[in-house]
Amino acid sequence: MRREDTREELPPVDEWIKKLDIESTANVKIPKRLIDQVIGQDHAVEIIKKAALQRRHVLLIGEPGTGKSMMARAMAELLPREELEDVLCYYNPEDPLNPKIRVVPAGKGREIVEQEKKREMLELRSRMSTMNTFIFAIVLLMIGLVIANALVGGTIDITALLMIIFFVFFFYILMRGNPQMMPKPKYPKLLVSHNPGDPAPFIDATGFKAGALLGDVRHDPFQSGGLETPPNHLVEPGAIHLAHKGVLFIDEIGTLDMETQIKLLTAMQEKKF
Fold first, then answer.
1. What angle do CA 106, 110, 114 make, to 5 degrees?
2. Which end of the chain has fewer CB atoms at under 10 Å, N or C?
3. Burial class of 174 by CB neighbour count within 10 A (0 to 12, 13 to 18, 19+)
4. What is the pTM of this model?
């Protein structure tokens, strides 16, 4: 004998809306917190809240459209407020291929870079001023020799004077245009930058390759001849560095190759990379 379906039939949506005291969507109150905007998924919401409070990792499994990325963003809002950090990459004169990393409070990174740029600019101006003074002294000396020779001989050698001017001008252009004569920038590169009071970062690293996820070193097309880029300016931060003290969200983590997954696990376990 077949059991009768005793479930209550829901009214049509149009009739259901008419019973509510709502004239437009402007009357619908939307919670300020993103986690409170999640409809359903009560167990997942509870897990997200606990993980945010305890700063733990979360593995979400579900069909597309079930709100995994929304809950990941909500987790970033729930993280306890913590002072973020800026990361600087310095030139290492002892071993240029191994730059030094320095961590400073949020907002200090930009200040340090600007100070170092100004200091190097002053040094460059001082160096150029010294070179200009040296060249000017040479010009005066040579012109003085030509005039002295004219006083003794009675005539001014125009050809010699023009050759001196041409030589000095050529030497000046050679010095200014030779990249090997110009000092290389030594100011640090700002890898990760925050402002004081910024909320915890949320980085969506879905589809990222190993370099974008874990950090990389850019290729330098000019590797010699005085045009090469300082090694510390070739370093690029990864998503794991940008998401430090925040949330790193990776959808479809199974698409990562095994080597990248192992490196990511190592970074999670050792808390550095």
1. 155
2. N
3. exposed
4. 0.72
